[in-house]
Design a protein that fits this description.
Number of strands: 9
Radius of gyration: 16 Å
Strand content: 25-35%
Order of helices and strands: EHEEHEHEEEEEH
Shape: globular
Structural class: alpha+beta
Length: 175
């Protein structure tokens, strides 16, 4: 029988897909109000891995990631996803989103993303929210699964998440 152990807090991250930087700034401001200080922000990355968002957002999309200084419990990702969905709706115009906000978390072993959509590799959490392990950490870097999104399979993303993981590792060192 395994012993039940208290789990350490995890590092909240958020990915954004957008066309207009104004909506990124507004979304980031809303998230800062809910989750506190940001301790990492990636550069803008061209988002050209799928045309899924083009009908809603248009062409020439961009991607950014941020992480927050304050650590969270893994189960709080449910409320986090609900908050990010509300921000998306608030920033929408004519029932079209202007930004996609994808929250998740990093721990020492993996990157987990929250979703409102079920699929065979996702686990239901609560309140209509699912979780998927998008990447795993092995041999000093994040690695993809067969179901990982195409953009999450890139070295550029691995480098971003490795940087965030280093920040997280220093935060939990004395926990």
């Amino acid at each position: 029988m395994g012993r039940i152990k208290k789990q350490p807090p995890v590092k909240l991250i958020t990915g954004f897909i957008f066309k207009d930087g104004e909506y990124f700034c507004k979304a980031k401001q809303g998230l800062r109000k809910s989750f506190g200080e940001i301790d990492f922000e990636s550069q803008e990355i061209p988002f050209n891995h799928t045309d899924y968002y083009q009908k809603e957002f248009g062409h020439s999309l961009k991607r950014k990631f941020i992480s927050f200084k304050r650590l969270i419990t893994p189960q709080s990702i449910v409320e986090t996803k609900i908050i990010t969905n509300r921000i998306e709706v608030r920033l929408s115009k004519d029932s079209l989103r202007r930004i996609n906000i994808d929250p998740g978390y990093i721990d020492m072993a993996k990157l987990v993303l929250a979703s409102t959509k079920d699929f065979r590799h996702r686990i239901y959490l609560n309140k209509g929210i699912f979780a998927e392990i998008a990447l795993f950490y092995q041999n000093k870097s994040f690695r993809p699964w067969e179901w990982s999104y195409p953009d999450y399979r890139t070295q550029e993303y691995f480098e971003i998440f490795n940087q965030i993981r280093k920040i997280y590792a220093s935060q939990i060192k004395n926990i």
